[in-house]
Amino acid sequence: MFFHQPTLELAGNLLGKYIVHEHNRGLIVGKIVETEAYMGADDRAAHSFGNRRTKRTEVMFGKPGLIYTYQMHTHTLINVVAGALDTPNAILIRAVEPMEGLDLMRKQWTNGPGKLTKALAITMEYYGKNWSDKPLYIAEGEQVISVSTGPRIGIENSGEAVHYPYRYWETNNPFVSKAR
To answer: Is the dihedral of CA 27, 28, 31, 37 positive or negative?
Structure first.
């Protein structure tokens, strides 16, 4: 029932949770240190703005707690579907702090959404799966003491949505992505 909470609350409450990938090469774990919420139909920065329903966005209309992956350039990005059924909200996981399986991450950086999926060996195969199911799941982690909020990154062409304070990060965590 963790995923059944308002999207903006969930975006903050994901901080400190662990993404666990029981990969065939071994266990890979990262602590979520940065997220961005996308508020669906009314959010110009969301893939589902205006209730756009496409093959890519279909999972966003599903139940909370599903995995939404998509390709951007050469990277796979990963999200948590949030909001009620047929309310296409999602939370992008922007950065993680490596916790376990550092040798498997091959010294990849994890301070950006494309970098973290590469480091955690996350591919498009997880599209539509449940975040509660193995081999890729979100687990209890550690409590984050200080949370900062601010505008999202990399959405310059989204009108007023560029200013929405829907980005959440663990204050002073060195693995948080940097704005360009």
So the answer is: negative
